Amino acid sequence: MNKINILLLCGGDGSEHEISLITADFLRKVLQEEPSYNVKHVVIHNDYWDCEGTNCSLQQNKTLLIGTEEFKVDYVIPCIHGFPGETGDIQSLLEIYHIPYFGCDSWASKACFNKITTKLYMDSCHIPNTPYIYLDTQSSANLTKAQEFFNKYKKVFVKAASQGSSVGCYQVHTIDELLPAIEKAFTYSNSVLIEQSLNPRELEVATYEFNNKLIATFPGEIITPNNKFYTYEEKYNSSSKSETVTEAYLPEDIKEAIRNYALQAFKLFKLKDLSRIDFFLTEDGKIYLNEINTFPGMTPISMFPKMLAHHGENMLDFIKDRIAKSLNK
After folding, report:
1. DSSP H helical ranges for the chain
2. What is the per-residue pLDDT across 191-236, written as a single tens digit (0 to 9) for each?
3. C-alpha to C-alpha distance for 88 and 188, rounded to whole angstroms
4. What is the fold, at CATH topology level, of the domain defined by 111-128+198-327?
5. Prediction pTM value
6. d(CA 214, CA 258)
7. Are 296 and 305 in contact (CB under 8 A)?
8. CATH value of 4-102 in 3.30.420.10, 3.40.50.20, 3.40.190.10, 1.25.10.10
């Protein structure tokens, strides 16, 4: 039996390094169920590529050089959250080397990682999203604009434009908190998004390709303690008190509207293989697309694998389908 050599890349130098390791461990266990796969696991950190204790490097001849050993690479799964995975950098490298890989391409990754770019594209296609402004500098004119925006909405989120969903993100309740939050957000990114802060239900849709179909699951729901902001710590800490519901209780028309927006966004951004698309639903029934995750987390409490399974798909079958599609096997 000819084995398919798979390179599983994880780590990265961003704030979500540790979560990437957990996602990689989950995927490695899934891949090990398939005897035709031969998997090499590489952790990238501080410009060092580590393959099970040995320094390695990816070569332009589609091999991974591990010490003096060469491992032919047929396919790559870049499960890196944040830089350099969801930013499109790893995908650009793989495209230059003509190595097929799992997940969205370099352009889609970069476009969706930047919250401002995402909103501008959604605006152009009339996909509803929360009211916002963005700042490219901390000039006095921009800070005045930010204060005017806060005075209009009374409560806002200040977000680093190019970071993971909960990194460099601050909820601001008073005008005195605004400028310090903007200053902190600028330490994570060279532009900052300011959005109206709502008190919505937080809904997520696993949107993915399988068996030549584009699928959007029914929305799942994140229920946080006392309806507080779903912070990075609350999302990934093992002592998290948040509850995840794989299919939220919603009116049918709301479910279908959210699923249709997810499908529209997947097509708009030319996504590939998988995504998790997050929404807000306000008390008065307004739907807002919040963000697009081009490589969603796959930890024991993550929504994407839970919703995929709830929809009736098996994770291994899903990955096998994507690999076969990419390799035309």
Report:
1. 17-31, 89-96, 106-113, 115-124, 140-153, 175-186, 232-236, 252-268, 303-310, 315-327
2. 999 999 998 999 999 999 999 999 999 999 988 765 555 454 545 4
3. 17
4. D-amino Acid Aminotransferase; Chain A, domain 1 (3.30.470)
5. 0.89
6. 15
7. no
8. 3.40.50.20
